[in-house]
Please model this.
Amino acid sequence: MNIVVCLKQTFDTEAKIVLDSNGKIDSNGVNLVINPYDEYAVEEALKLKEKFGGEVTLVSMGSERVQESIRTALAMGCDKGILVNDPSIENPDEWATSEILAKAVSQIPYDIILAGRIAVDDGSSQVAIRLADALNIPSVSSILKLEIEDNKGTVTREIDGGTELIEVGLPAVLTAQKGLNEPRYPSMMGIMKAKKKEIKVLTLADLGMSAADLPRKMSIPKFSLPNARTAGKKISGEAAEAAQELARLLREEAKVI
Amino acid sequence: MAKGIWIVIEQSKLEIRKVSLELLSQGRIIADKTGEPLIAVILGKGVTDLAKRVAAYGADKVILVDDDKLADYTTGAYTSVLNKLIRKEEPQAVLIGNTAVGKDLAPRLAQRLGVGMASDCTGMENEEESFLTFKRPIYGGKAFAQVASNVRPVVATIRPNTFPVAAEDASHQAEVVNETADIDPADLRAIVKEIAIATSQRPELIEANIIISGGRGMKGPENYTILEECADVIGAAVGASRAAVDAGWIEQKFQVGQTGKTVSPTLYIACGISGAIQHLAGMGSSKVIVAINKDPEANIFNLADYSIVGDLFEIIPLLTEEFKKLS
Model:
């Protein structure tokens, strides 16, 4: 089975966000990791490989530093990586990213494409689903369970208030929700082996594309930070007294009960 | 010339989701300002009667697509139908609630249309050049991005609880247009076999006006009943922090935070939650925050509007009794 995992490098969720002097998100000193939801995709891919054999190829976009995250996923057991790194296109929007990834994925055989349901940085939750449309294959998002038989996936998808069971023909794009599995840690052996695994770095030209073909559909974002909330009223006293006072304040002052 | 503001109405068992009413209400305000018509689009089976309802919330026109194949939401069929309608009618904007359906549908539709999309927006303003600008939380709410589309239509999903629902006006009339469901066979490659909705009388977490959430301080799964009892008195949803979910005390679908649900209720009651940055990212946009925690140094107290330092096992049942007296 040929399995593709779309992987994004993101800030660690512990990271505090600050803006630099140009008003951009400052990545200085921030620990970069595999997007946590993509780890579920990697784990699921490795489980499929263990069951059906085949190969897991990681596909990512970004700068040189993304190689570190690809290397980590290779150490978990993935087989090879493709990184599209082209300085001529800086921070492409979701449409352009999907078009580029679609070209990169089209160059390799695939039976199933896995990705995280959302990236914890821009939180846009678009690219994997857009990729499916660009490749003209079905997609199921936010999956909690996956079984594959006879070139068909039976997938449990999270919906508001419950789940649904979906049968989907392969190839398909599936996006991983927390709960799908428990990602493994790279073993020492895995880390050693990963050093020798191939990461192919491609430019847009390698994909037969150029930045001019990919005009932004969305404006370049302007960033701001939320107004810092400050501590409000401390309600003291015995438990019964405090509970009564809190209920009163919520009713009379905040008017939310 | 692009025309109209489209609201894709989400319904479940012929009940219109609250977020769709929020979008109609806000869409009406923008329609009045810009002179654009407000158009509600309803896909489903047996949805004809919903047209009156959306008219009462301000729609000028209702497009109904009533078909057996649209009874349950599927990515492919809904994308297929909406793509063709949008290409025909050329609206300025297509707005969808950021629900499980909206999150799945909107990116696929945007790609099919070859347009941009703003996800999970918590603000939307009319502006001359781009028609709409959107404010959206990024890094789980630790920062905001303001974006607009360079092309039309713009597709956007809006977070539930962002806009108030206007009063219903039963006298408001809308033109109703029936369209047929034209679905490409290639869009029928995924089939819904079964839908399992957990039986809960409580509101859906992302749409709830009030959330009462428990963290590590809950000490065990059995103790969530005290939160549930309180929730049921005030019509709240129950949530949890990552610590409680990772401990296996409560299902993952209740997790609030950067790797869980992002919520903005009117009132968020955090019980035994220390206030890790990932949790604050998921609930920091709540209008009023209450924190109850034994540890006076807990970070959550730095942003709570009302704080009680104390034992939640003592305070919550008392608070429940106080709420009962108020209701």
The two ends of chain A are 55 Å apart (CA to CA).
